[in-house]
């Protein structure tokens, strides 16, 4: 039972669900479809890139209070619920873990290592670094199975991520046939690396294959949550307004 409870606690770590000072951890998530694109930026791409970087720096200053009608406060970042972390029995685990009441501090200290907007492919390449993120979250699982054991459990976890790097690409597609037209996320790829993961539970007895499945399930949950939130924001902005901003 101790092993099962440890696994469920561990499932809440963003990077891979590992314990205190476990060392570098990496993961990859791909959602949807990515548009093909060339490496060379056009002059219009460079203009759009500079405008997006300027917008992100503006948003950073407003993260504690949000932007009225568009973006809620995100410093600290709060989410009442996240998409379920789903386990498909690849390492003897089967079931879902409900994640809720997420509170994360530190994301506003992000550094934009790289960013490139490509208008022809409606994509953004990004590389973001955050020195430290401290998060707390609740979890609950019903009829969760590990091998022959089935249990119901719930709890609270605190996680610290040190040296958190995310890079990848996000692609968009216009939603037409509605007035006004707007953008939605077509695909998202996230390669993440965390130098140190600290969590308030010992997971030294958890098998490596179990930790890997936890990594994949929780990272996918958080990536799906990010897509949902981006789509919610872009529904409030017309396609015409976005194009005017990017090239303005």
Q: Concise description?
A:
With 248 residues, the chain is of the alpha+beta class. The protein is 26% helix and 44% strand.
CATH class: Alpha Beta
Order of helices and strands: HEHEEEEEEHH
Shape: globular
Uncertain runs with pLDDT below 50, 5 residues or more?
A: 1-19
Estimated helix fraction: 25-40%
Query: What name does CATH use for the topology?
Result: Bactericidal permeability-increasing protein, domain 1
> How much of the polypeptide forms β-strand, as a percent range?
35-45%
Number of helices: 4
Averaging pLDDT over every residue, what do you get?
84
CATH hierarchy: architecture: Super Roll
**Span between termini:** 59 Å
Specify Rg, calculated over alpha carbons: 19 Å
Main beta sheet: 7 strands, antiparallel
Give the class from helix and strand content and strand pairing. Answer: alpha+beta
Work out the number of β strands. 7
Query: What is the domain tally?
Result: 1
Structural topology:
Elements: H1 2-10, E1 25-32, H2 43-62, E2 77-88, E3 93-105, E4 111-118, E5 123-146, E6 149-175, E7 182-199, H3 208-234, H4 239-247
Antiparallel strand pairs: 1-7, 2-3, 3-5, 4-5, 5-6, 6-7
